[in-house]
Amino acid sequence: MGKRKPDHRSALESGRDAAASVYPAISRGALRLRSALWGRSGTETVGPPSLVTLELNAGRGFEADGAKGGREGKAGALERFWRARSGPSKSDWLDIVNGVGAGTTLRLAGGDPLESPHLEVILFEADRRGIDVEIVTPGARLEECAPVIYGLGVSRLRLVLYGPEEVHNRTTGDARAFESSVRGALAMRGLRCGTARPTLVVDVVTSAESVPSAAETVECALAMGADGVVLHWPCAGEGVLDVGAVLMLSRARTKWRGETVRFFPDLGEDELRRYYGGEALSVGPKRCLVPWRSVTVGADGKVRFCGTTVGDVGGEALADVCNSEAARLLRRELKKGPAAECAGCPGRFGDEGLVR
Ligand code: SF4
Q1: Which of 13, 99, 113, 356 is 20 to 30 A distant from 236 in Cα terms?
Q2: DSSP state of 233
């Protein structure tokens, strides 16, 4: 009697189904517990943040007059150097990188961090110190920068798509933006050549206008060979939103089962209705942990928590600015309850490489 082949496919499928339902519930429970524990603690000061975002570039490519930015800029190749003149100097950025603790993720973001003339030196320093680096980019210069990104050990590349070709080009103000992103993603995949780094995640960032075409954008991202796709729901309170279109897309998610597509925030239909109805849903009972665990340094050198400026990197160590009087005041207020700006902010659902 011949040996029966093990039916590993059904075992995998049932395992995958269980993982898709059980583990998200466990991680939400863990976040709730963590938030509850923090909620009981009295601290306004923080240790080294686990996420430091450097907005290397002010993002002129996103100005209303799109012709000024992106690849159409009149200053040509020197534009990225001229633009950086008013921001922190190379040594300011390096001081921050050198002050980042082990275990911290360094996120390079801002309009397009690949436009910054300081990109290479920051990546080199971070690689030398073994820091986990993530880059968030719409990808206009990705094809050109892919060898540097690969060679200097970046862990994750988050490519931002605002919609299918026409929507993405209109949003970025660059008629070739989508084509550049696709070429960059393919170059990155080609360079990896069988290795796993950097992971390529495509962030599909939707707005009230682009929700109906979001499924098409996800298909594009999968065709580009993304290791993961995160579909970001529109922020609550931004524009007039067709909640019906959101719910329809939420129901359609079953067609990507087995693919690496996630939704952020990961809410069920009822929760989505409540979220867009203005309810302050949260992963935790009361407290959002973002101002306790992450900090942003803007292209102007200002240090911000949740959009509130608490200091400046010029001459002061980042760790000190994180515990400045303004920063402690902000946390003290948030301990009493959510601020007005928390209402539509997805930050409280946990971090998903959020592009804000
Ligand atoms: S919900 Fe948003 S604004 Fe409020 S504390 Fe969290 S990140 Fe900041």
Answers
A1: 113
A2: P
What pLDDT digit, counting tens, does each position of 148-197 carry? 999 999 999 999 999 999 999 999 899 999 999 999 999 999 998 878 88
CA–CA dist 334, 33 (Å, integer): 18
For a substitution probing ligand 1, which of 341, 351, 354 has the most ligand atoms within 8 Å of its CB? 341
Closest CA to 67 of 204, 172, 179, 185: 172
Virtual torsion, Cα 121, 127, 132, 137, nearest 10 deg: 40
pTM of the model: 0.82
SS3 94: helix
AA letter at 216:
E
User: DSSP secondary structure string, 177-215?
Assistant: HHHHHHHHHHHHHHHHTT---SEEEEEEE--TTTGGGHH
Tokens of 264: 């952020």
pLDDT at 115 over 70: yes
Measured CA to CA, the distance from residue 332 to residue 289 in angstroms comes to 13
